[in-house]
Write a structure and sequence with these properties.
Layout (H helix, E strand, L loop, with lengths): L8 H13 L15 E6 L3 H13 L5 E7 L3 H8 L5 E3 L2 H4 L7 E4 L7 H9 L3 E4 L7 H13 L4 E3 L7 H11 L6 E7 L5 E2 L13 H5 L9 H4 L10 E2 L5 H4 L1 H11 L9 E4 L9 E4 L5 E6 L6 E5 L2 E6 L2 E5 L18 H14 L7 H20 L3 E4 L4 E2 L3 H4 L17
Parallel strand pairs: 1-2, 1-4, 2-3, 4-5, 5-6, 7-12, 8-9
Antiparallel strand pairs: 7-13, 10-11, 10-16, 11-12, 13-14, 14-15, 16-17
Helix pairs in contact: 2-12, 5-6, 6-13, 7-11, 11-13
């Protein structure tokens, strides 16, 4: 078993400078004893503990086993392990060198999703990364490139893709049951705001400088460190895209899926009138389908309006007008069952088969891009033209400044993977 390691701020920066700057490749094992898949957890906070429970529930079906954890907060890492004899690392890069680890589950704050996932691909590890996949559009393309270059299975935590009601509803739209789609209504997801919290003492054992990662370091505060506190990092720039990328990564992913746009995005985006952080946003695909983020409640789906009726697809809903549209729906639609375990199982099965998972990295990147486009339209305050192939705004240098950002060294995303 690998021993526990600790890492000082100085040590992380000195050792990180070289490692973060260039790819490092560790050959993947052919799985452990008895063809077991050894899984490491990078980040063991609120969402990671939920994923750990779901993983442990299905692991035996896939002959998989948790073997290691990593977190910048030593106390939290120890608590996540409990009595288990797992490897413990404050530096996730050392976890990636653990020969017991074949794959990793990345459940960090959003600003720490991409770099560990890229490093895992370079180390020959398959990846399950929580949604939203990335903090910026450019990060998403870098992660797709890394997954393809190193032939890794990368699944995003968009677990609604493993729900039968969502799958059936999206298939119904794509089959033409609604006729030509004119408009899709989605939630008016809130954009992030600036953090102005006062300084608090850093808890003992937390490497706060490393937690800040690619962002400019700011003073520790519990309501920043916790994901959904008062309000938590998920609501603050530059750590997250707010609920536009939080809940939006679910809702807009369903819209992309149902419209058959898994490898594309809208080509026009514009904000409507309203408060800066919650102005309704409209988007138009090249085929003319309009998406309007104008519904007041945050949810994980959309209302599709077509020639033959309306269909609402959501995490816990599948409703149609007229109801006859659902006359052939399966009787066992999972409206309220949590299917994260099934989603993780799909990932584990694909690790063995080497087939693309249901929420493949390219799919997740495009859905996250749609979320980022919504935020950027609000920040720019005007209509934007997007090129889904070049992944740039058309003739708009000011808007393109939001596509990527310079990360603080040594935590920035590498230019080449």
């Amino acid at each position: 078993m690998a021993k526990q390691t600790t890492l000082s701020r100085r040590g992380f920066l000195i050792r990180g400078a070289a490692v973060f700057a260039a790819p490092y490749i560790i050959p993947a094992s052919a799985f452990g004893a008895n063809d077991r898949i050894g899984v490491g957890f990078i980040g063991v906070g609120r969402r990671a503990l939920q994923l750990k429970a779901d993983f442990l529930r299905v692991a035996k079906q896939a002959n998989a086993e948790a073997v290691a954890v990593s977190d910048f907060f030593r106390k939290r890492m120890d608590a996540a392990c409990g009595d288990q004899k797992w490897g413990k690392y404050q530096d996730y890069r050392e976890l990636l060198q653990d020969k017991q680890v074949d794959a990793v589950i990345v459940a960090t704050p959003d600003h720490w999703h991409t770099l560990p996932s890229i490093h895992a691909c370079q180390a020959g590890k398959d990846v399950y990364c929580e949604k939203p996949l990335t903090l910026t559009i450019r990060e998403g393309r870098a992660l797709v490139d890394a997954a393809r270059k190193y032939k890794r299975i990368v699944q995003a935590g968009s677990q609604q893709r493993s729900k039968t009601n969502c799958r059936y509803g999206c298939e119904l739209v794509r089959s033409g049951a609604l006729g030509k789609i004119s408009v899709v209504h989605g939630s008016n997801y809130l954009s992030p705001w600036e953090c102005e919290l006062p300084e608090q003492p850093v808890p003992e054992g937390l490497n706060w400088d490393a937690w800040c990662g690619q962002t400019t370091p700011r003073p520790y505060h519990e309501d920043l460190y916790l994901p959904r506190a008062k309000p938590g990092w998920i609501s603050f720039r530059p750590y997250s895209g707010g609920e536009m990328t939080g809940w939006g990564a679910h809702g807009l992913d369903i819209i992309q899926w149902a419209l058959g746009m898994d490898e594309s995005c809208p080509v026009e985006i514009w904000p409507e009138e309203g408060e800066p952080l919650k102005r309704p946003v409209s988007m138009r695909y090249a085929n003319g389908v309009l998406v309007r983020l104008d519904e007041p409640e945050e949810h994980g789906g959309g209302l599709f309006e077509g020639e033959n009726g309306k269909l609402r697809i959501d995490r816990d809903k599948l409703e149609a007008t007229p109801s006859e549209l659902l006359k052939n729906a399966p009787k066992d639609l999972e409206l309220r069952k949590d299917t994260t375990g099934a989603h993780i199982l799909n990932w584990l099965e694909c690790i063995r088969s080497r087939e693309k998972p249901i929420a493949d990295v390219e799919i997740a990147h495009r859905s996250a891009t749609m979320c980022h486009l919504g935020n950027i339209a609000r920040w720019a305050g005007r209509k934007l033209q997007w090129d889904p192939e070049k992944e740039l705004f058309v003739n708009d240098e000011d808007a393109n400044k939001y596509v990527a950002r310079a990360g603080r060294e040594p935590y920035g995303i590498p230019k080449e993977v």
